[in-house]
């Protein structure tokens, strides 16, 4: 829904970009208030009346967004048969008919440079003969998407890849009417040797009403919290930790013994860490990223997965890429220092 | 609607930012296609089936946005009584009751630095006594907004200001169901000495369906065209032109005579130039800005005018302001050179 119109105001809130701000913030604030105070009392009174009307509008707006949420629920149902079909084709549970596979790919062929095409033809032949044992469905469909989409690739570690080969579907579920607004991402896995869960979930809770303290900042539903789930790892398979050996010296006797300890390590599967959403205050930046990822799964990856698989979701917009770099730079400034690798042999 | 969630992807389209793009675009494109070509035929076939499903989803999505548009029409009706009341209070046609003006402004008072407050108290007194002839409504309500919002202030010229003092309301009207999707901005003026129109309009036409050529780029309705209106200026009052005197030398006789000619000059009222939307190809940048302005009126200025009047729509988000500056810089790079002022005494 963040895409109804191509011109999205990057600030999201308040249209700040368009406000004159060549004076220091504090001064501006004071000047503004002063200007307001300079108004004759009768006029100020009328402006307060306008603000009360604005409050009413904010409450109407909240109802509007509730109805949009309902509409999203309704359409989730309409998309579902397509998503189910996608899941079945990807998993190899269903083989599409010839009619279902018809695709005008002439243009794509043309776009392929000629030498690349020759190479492709050759390798395709090899691939076909090598794959005499015809692969099931679309192998590594979701893993390929994880590798191709930067935001996801950043979370992906080498040890995650064999696990994500078992990922068979990602879905989003919206909260029921009357419930607090939320959406749940569900990651479905085929039986595997890493954990016993068949589905890993992450709930994003949303705030859908104006804040009593600051009603005018309301801009529609906002993610305010999230909750992962416990992964039941098989013994020794948990990729979110690693075993470090530490040498302990006995204070009195001076003897040294080696103990092993689990320490956290980077992994996509930390995304489901149920504790993550709770450490709110000190992790503002991380949480923002987490919310962005949740939103990105919901709005882009899940609805149009095949376009990320083929790469078509990437568009050749140079200015956008330029802007992205800049945003990346700004993001980096906000990021904390890398914590550095754990040294597994450190003595304590 | 571009604000359902605070995390708006600045690129609007395709989530490009999150795509790995450390290789040249052409190479990436080829590599991607090649990767796709390397897939066994049976797998490629299934991916085509997934793309056909994706096409169906794009068409469902178009229906979703039509329903959102309907919802917006419905809510426009619910907001309207508040907007009417606002118009009447601003114009002084209605005096709000004491109850309607109740406002908890303690916090605002506190925020005002003490010395400023003293000054304010003094000037307020002066203002009140000076304004023994109590001003009608909220004078210069819309003009103040034009001055405060950068995007509008950039269009505003000194000669526009006395005219905009007569602006009494701005509204948005959505297209009827079954009609091609559009919205119309309407600017209502009280009778004035500049032009005879009581309302100036600008229609923004939208495209609400996937493009047959490129269906996967569909991201919801998009502004594709706009149309202003003719302003019936009173004689000599048109601020969108100015009179220049030019000296003409007779080729044969060498005598010089002075002729006057109207040349365009900058003015907010060029916003209504009915020709503007038509010169499409050579004015891409200008049109983008025009579309942004239309969207900004619709989504921000009209729904929450009083917050721009008081300045509350401005939020103190330093990172956002930083980002805005950068975006501004990028914009500037795309801009054409200034054409420079017209020299009114140039000889031809």
UniProtKB/TrEMBL annotation, chains A, B:
Subcellular compartments: Nucleus
Any GO BP annotation: nucleosome assembly
Coiled-coil ranges from the UniProt annotation: 105-133
A GO cellular-component term linked to this record: nucleus
Sorted UniProt keywords: Coiled coil, Nucleus
InterPro entries tied to this protein: NAP-like_sf, NAP_family
Family per record: Belongs to the nucleosome assembly protein (NAP) family.
Name the record gives this protein: Nucleosome assembly protein 1-like 4a
